[in-house]
Specification:
- The chain is mostly helical and 77 residues long.
- Helix content is 60%, strand content 0%.
- The longest helix is centred in the middle third of the chain and has 18 residues.
- It is elongated, with a radius of gyration of 17 Å.
- It starts with 13 loop residues before the first helix and ends with a helix.
Length: 77
């Protein structure tokens, strides 16, 4: 198995950030830290919106990040 070229900067990709927020939001249903303060429905809606956003964001280029990766590759070569 080979990792993608952007694996070293996974934490800076918008799609990964949205996916992590989605997972944390949906976990609220299992671990009710905010029980009684925020309705569960809002967490489920938020999780659905964030997971859809992660799919969309994965298809949007991040030119600044791409340039940084190319620069790193050139300096390592």
């Amino acid at each position: 198995m080979k990792l993608s070229d952007d694996a070293p900067v996974w934490h800076r990709l918008w799609s990964n950030q949205a996916a992590l927020l989605s997972a944390i939001t949906i976990l609220q249903g299992l671990l009710p830290f905010w029980n009684g303060i925020v309705p569960d429905r809002w967490f489920m809606i938020g999780g659905a919106v964030l997971s859809t956003g992660a799919f969309i964001l994965r298809n949007i280029e991040q030119p600044k990040l791409k340039a940084e990766l190319a620069e790193k590759r050139q300096s390592n070569a």
